[in-house]
Design brief:
The protein is of the alpha+beta class and about 425 residues long. Helix content is about 20%, strand content about 25%. Strand 2 (about 45-50) and strand 3 form a beta hairpin. The protein binds manganese (II) ion (MN). Manganese (II) ion (MN) binds near residues 133, 205, 239, 363 and 366. Manganese (II) ion (MN) binds near residues 133, 205, 365 and 366.
Length: about 425
């Protein structure tokens, strides 16, 4: 991971002439995430978030201000080509963008290429070929497992193999697109026969998403030491789940319609370079846990494979919004509660020769803390629906109701570094159709 060098783009003292960037919660000049956006009434193009503005990369390329070999990719109407460039070139583009937004000698030329972010539409960064959801949040696996197997919550494979399943990419949407409550088949344990009805146990899942940059050839695994070079960036992911449908359908092949009706992602691709100052050691495995097999084991990954990111989930109900109440924070916890690193996820996925492609999305699985304040789903917070949560409006919730809105946010921070964020991963629940 020697290419994860810190350079002048990470300097916490560096400021931008885009004044809203300085001290911005998510997008100071030290972040510079890529996304696909449309200014009002115009076609999709690639942009870079800077403060409350978006810099149009196509316009920057037309002005000859990006490296020549990247100009065509910057003019695309998808992020795919830019995601697939070598990490060293991506870092070079980052340095160019950082310099242009820092030095004000080209300000007059660049200012017209900035758009007010709030007036723009954000799209999925690229067509997502395949979506795989892992289950690396060990405390979530424990909490959910305990509801079904109190004495033996973790299945015997959990600490040996990064568990995952193939999800569905067609129903992934960017932040802001409402979620229609799904109908599904469910059978309460005491009922004689299943019914088909709107889910009564609609839940969210707090996850991070990992974008694949360069893929691998079918039949050619990705060595763990190379895995990081295949990652183009990170986002936030809400893997909406219908728990009643899930409980009835998941055996023997795993989740299906309980998971594939909609997933929401934050639209900005936060690069590995932006997150470089926030890499931390993977927490030591507890005494007695098995060590990973050699194909999942790498000293660099142990030393830098985890992310110093703090995740938060917020809920607002229709009644809260009507009463002018702010969103209520349901949970907060660190992303270091992952039992496997993102590099281990990539290496494991390709270990049988499965080919990852540019624009594939990997979910981490729900990230929960060992303590209640960091639980990443309502299934955990309400103990499977047994303990309703009290909200500031006087309402209670076990699972989500129509009109409820979930927002996931996250920040990466470290001593002596400028804090960066991911933007919002937000969606509101609409009634079943
Ligand atoms: Mn999930």
């Amino acid at each position: 991971m020697t290419w994860w060098i810190l350079d002048e783009t990470h300097d916490p003292a560096r400021t931008s002439w885009v004044e809203s960037a300085n001290g911005h919660r998510d997008f100071p000049i030290q972040n510079l995430p890529f996304g696909l956006f449309s200014p009002a009434g115009r076609s999709p193009r690639i942009g870079v978030a800077i403060g409350d503005r978006i810099l149009d990369l196509a316009a920057l390329a037309d002005a000859g201000l990006v490296p020549d070999d990247l100009a065509d990719a910057c003019r695309d109407d998808t992020l795919a080509r830019l995601m697939a460039i070598a990490p060293q070139r991506r870092a070079a583009l980052r340095r160019v963008l950082s310099d242009l937004l820092h030095d004000d000698n080209r300000r007059g030329e660049i200012e017209p290429m900035l758009h007010v972010a709030q007036a723009c539409e954000l799209h999925l960064p690229t067509r997502i070929g395949d979506y795989t959801d892992f289950y690396v949040g060990i405390h979530h696996a424990n909490n959910i497992g305990r509801q079904f197997r109190p004495d033996n919550p973790l299945l015997p494979n959990y600490k040996h193999v990064p568990i995952g399943y193939h999800g569905r990419s067609s129903s992934i949407r960017p932040s802001g697109v409402p979620v229609v409550r799904p109908r599904g088949q469910r059978k309460p344990p005491e009922a004689d026969a299943p019914v088909f009805a709107p889910t009564a146990r609609l839940d969210y899942e707090l996850e991070m998403g990992v974008w694949i940059g360069t893929g691998n050839e079918l039949g050619s695994p990705v060595p763990i030491a190379d895995a990081a070079q295949h990652i183009a960036g990170f986002c936030l992911l809400n893997d909406w789940s219908a728990r009643d449908v899930q409980g009835w359908e998941y055996q023997p092949l795993g989740p299906f319609l309980s998971k594939n009706f909609h997933s929401t992602i934050s639209p900005w691709v936060v690069t590995p370079e932006a997150l470089a100052p926030f890499r931390v050691a993977q927490p030591e495995r507890p005494e007695g846990d098995p060590q990973p097999l050699p194909y999942l084991s790498d000293a660099d990954d142990r030393a830098h494979g985890a992310l110093g990111v703090t995740l938060e989930v917020w809920l607002s109900t229709q009644a809260m919004r009507d009463a002018g109440l702010p969103p209520h924070r349901l949970s907060t916890g660190p992303a270091t509660n992952m039992y496997w690193t993102v590099n281990q996820m990539v290496a494991h996925h390709a270990s049988n020769g499965c080919n990852l492609n540019t624009g594939d999305l990997l979910g981490t699985g729900t990230i929960s803390a060992p303590v209640r304040e960091g639980y990443g789903s309502l299934m955990e917070l309400s103990e499977g629906g047994k303990s309703p949560l009290s909200l500031p409006s006087g309402e209670t919730r076990t699972f989500l109701e129509d009109g409820d809105e979930i927002v996931i946010t996250a920040t990466a921070s470290a001593p002596g570094r400028a804090t960066i964020g991911f933007g919002e991963c937000q969606a509101r629940i609409l009634p079943a159709r």
